[in-house]
Structure prediction request, 754 residues.
Amino acid sequence: MTFGKVILAGLIIISLAFPAHPILDHALPKLSDYGFFKEPISEQSPISDVIPYTIASELFSDYAEKLRFIKVPENRSISHNEDLSFSYPEGTFLIKTFYYQSDVRDPNSDRRLIETRLLKKTGSEWLAIPYVWNNEQTDAVLALAGDRKDVSWIHSDGKPISILYSVPNLNQCKSCHVYNNIQQPIGPKVRNLNLDLIYDNISTNQLDKWVSLGILEPFDNDSLPRTVDYMDVHDGNLDERARAWLDINCAHCHRRGGPAETSGLYLELEETDPTALGILKPPVAAGRGSGDLKYNIVPGHAEQSIMDFRIRSLDPGVMMPELNRKLVHKEGVEIIQAWINSMPEKE
Amino acid sequence: MTFKRSIIILKFIFSFCIAEFEKDLQLQLILAEPGDTITLDSGLFPILGTLSMEGKENIVIRGNGINSTTLNFKTQVEGAQGLSITNCKNIILQDFTIQDAKGDAIKCQYVNGITFRRVKAQWLGGPKPTNGAYGLYPVQCENVLIEHCVAIGASDAGIYVGQSKNIIVRFSEAFENVAGIEIENSTRADVYGNNVHGNTGGILVFDLPDLVVKEGQQIRIFDNIIKENNIDNFAPEGNIVAKVPSGTGIMVMATEQVEIFENTIIDNKTAGTAIVSYFITEEETKDTQYNPYTSSINIHDNIYRREPQIPTLDHDIGLLLFTRFFKDVPDIIYDGMPDPKYLGISGYIPLSRRLCITNNSDADYLNLDISKNFESWYSPFFADFNTDISECDCEQESISEVILDLE
Prediction:
């Protein structure tokens, strides 16, 4: 029996033992079972109604690179609400594959696919369905309990990095994707999608492309918001880049209605209350996460700010975000430090 | 060589077993169906990541005994909690121990109906600032029952109920924590029959600003033993409990409707019971919906006993008490900050909104009156403090018992 068969047999046993779990009604055993990609699926070359997309500012996931796709059921389209939030038709899939180049400096170096996460719209909720790629890179297998993988690569500075990469389990998926108790996508929002992407050698605005494909209802408004790319120093100002980083890395929990709302720290791009953003705000239940510091942000002093302390930490009981980070996001930390240091000191 | 190799092989098998136990348990937590009981065998099980349960109803997680089944998180590599329960209904946790979680031992959020029974949260090696923050930590929950539990070594609160409603904490023991038991921004809580000793502060009832759930009220603290909560405060700076003076028995801050009765409050060196506004923290808040004052506090029929001893000198209030009272510090300390919205035209606070202290054995009283006596740093050292307990001679209606809606 091959490894894959063992897993399959295990899944069958599990599904016999727990017949009614909703995830098992929707989750197919292997990624290839969905038919999203042409063979060999490790090339990640999508079939025609699976549309690649990207977002302006990305969540840091231990320097993993990501491929994103969306599949909207035939003859259906995504509608949008007055606040520009999306309503997706049932059966929509969001597909995200995490991979590492063996040498980040060389785009032609070997690519190792680690995991593919699916979000499937079912009724009012989204289901998160995690898959882990096998060592042969021929397929990815359902992994409800997540996994841990040794991963190593040559980083952009030429130095080798090795980590125990962690694939989130079903509950961990939800711990970030939950909003007002309902599991939802995080990245695909109008302001995150409002940028150009190359389709068949032609650069096109993603939203325009989706509209022209008929998967997104057209907008009345010409001037749609756009999140800046925090990695691009020429995009927006420091405040906008810092807020974009906080928005995608923190605000899925740190917002009203999000799992970290108990902290009173809200980091969505739209947040305007300085205390909610952490400025001279004492922590609520940080424990040793406070790092013996008094305030989340001390204007002008990153080194006295809990926010800086926690995004630099690698201690599981201290670090932020709490999950799926084994490395410090150096570039992100630099932006946040510069942002805090640029704030005028208060008396 | 052979020996070395066999050790390596053994290690490999062992680590595989660990991973299998953890993976299997996590899978059970994911796939559990309403009515299921997940059982944990006797043994000491090292766990590498947060165990989590999400979106479940009517589940029991049961070990083989509070001292028999232990999940140890010493080598935890990911997740801040030991066990995390979110968005659930009617969950019972019983008969196991969580040790050395990197952050909180058991955190429950958005759970209606959560029972902790004979559960221990523990950090080994005594009180240390590197211990996790909370032991048993329900937050934004309803119908919380914590009974026959034990919490040891939390660098914040051993048993901490935050932003929740309908709570009973009873027959439990908390020691070597910064705060033994803390009820924060919560409504309708009964805390009784507990043994709270050897913490920095015994039982805290706090209301804090800038939170989603505000205005805690209707809290009853009764029939507890609150003894020798005199250990040094080891909370990391920045946390509100880092401001609690070592030697505090009960502290009520900024909360309305608190009834404290029939407790035995012994040998807490700085303040047997402190009733204070948020101003005592010297923190500012811009939260306009926040009420920083205490009101309707009813302290009656408690036993206070205190051998003459020096209060903490690591805290401004402790220093002040030491210089003014030396070793005979009063048992009940009030900051003298009534809620101005209850002040009538005559400057008179209705009885039902006051601090009432009646029928306690051996209770001395001190009103710090901080709005008058703390104008400069040196003024409290010369102020004429009121220590006449008769100003609190008033009666209030008892708060009604908490009835939990647990299926």
